[in-house]
Amino acid sequence: MIDVFLMISLVLMVWLGWVVGFFQAFFAVLAGFMAVFAATKYPYQEGLNFYLVFVITGLFVSMLGRVALKLVGLLCLSILDRIGGVILSTCVWLIVSVSVVVPTIIRKM
Description:
Low-confidence stretches: none
Helix content: over 70%
Largest sheet: none
Mean pLDDT: 84
Distance between the termini: 17 Å
Radius of gyration: 17 Å
Strand content: under 5%
Number of strands: 0
């Protein structure tokens, strides 16, 4: 059953990487990491400040990604962007699946 789930999720991630491309996927992952980092390092975390810093940082990095995506479109590198997206999404899938599935299998032993 786990094998079927892993294969379906791998196919979905490869398709998503092809559709989205490298730059958009990279900047989405980067926006998530940068937003968490900035929000946790912000000294005034009372109330909504944490969430506002998180959202503003994520939006700023996403906008930078859109600018990079426009530049890739102007340079006619869209096929390389798509291939890079497949590679990046496969690597993300591998990291997530190993960090979730392997501890589950080890616990069952």
